[in-house]
């Protein structure tokens, strides 16, 4: 007969997750998931109100629930019914998936740099596009020019 370790499943998960996440990661995880927890809570309360509203058909129940929507924000107790809890969880998961999709479709911008920002080029930037022979260059400004050679020394700097 095996001896039990005495740790519950939650304690095992706490040890497993606690070892992998730093304090900042835990804080970020909690703060980013608070809106989804609130969405699940209020969806649970809304489904509870709908389920307990008087009326026999969906129209009457919805009308009553909309008239008494202030009751959703009145208390802080979750419903005991599994359907209400499941509906709240589903709403939170759908909201999380929509946010993930929106974030994945966002433009990839450089961190800390404003979108569309650029810098002025200098002599080192245009040097690969210039010929060593000054008569083979088309002058652009007093310091910059472009080569007229069809095949520069480095092929990646060939104009197209």
Report on this structure.
The protein has 160 residues and is mostly helical. It has two domains: 24-101, no CATH class; 123-157, no CATH class. It contains five helices and two strands; from the N terminus they run H-H-H-H-H-E-E. It has helices spanning 9-20, 23-52, 58-67, 82-104, 123-126, and strands at residues 137-139, 145-147. The protein has a two-stranded antiparallel ribbon with strand order 1-2. The N and C termini lie far apart (78 Å). The model has no long low-confidence stretch (mean pLDDT 83).
Topology:
Elements: H1 9-20, H2 23-52, H3 58-67, H4 82-104, H5 123-126, E1 137-139, E2 145-147
Antiparallel strand pairs: 1-2
Protein name: TraG family protein
Organism: human gut metagenome
Keywords: Membrane, Transmembrane, Transmembrane helix
Name the descriptors.
single chain, 160 residues, mainly alpha, 2 domains, two-stranded antiparallel sheet, 5 helices, 49% helix
Poorly predicted ranges (pLDDT <50, ≥5 residues)? none
Kindly report the average pLDDT value.
83
* Element order: H for helix, E for strand: HHHHHEE
Number of helices: 5
Number of domains: 2
Class of secondary structure makeup = mainly alpha
- Oligomer description: single chain
Alpha-carbon distance between the two ends: 78 Å
How much is the radius of gyration in Å?
A: 32 Å
Q: How do the strands line up in the largest sheet?
A: 1-2
Helix content: 40-55%
Count of distinct strands:
2
User: What general form does the structure show?
Assistant: elongated
How many strands, which pairing sense, and closed or not: the largest β-sheet?
2 strands, antiparallel
What fraction of residues sit in β-strands? under 5%
Transmembrane segments: 29-50, 85-101
Organism: human gut metagenome
Keywords: Membrane, Transmembrane, Transmembrane helix
Protein name: TraG family protein
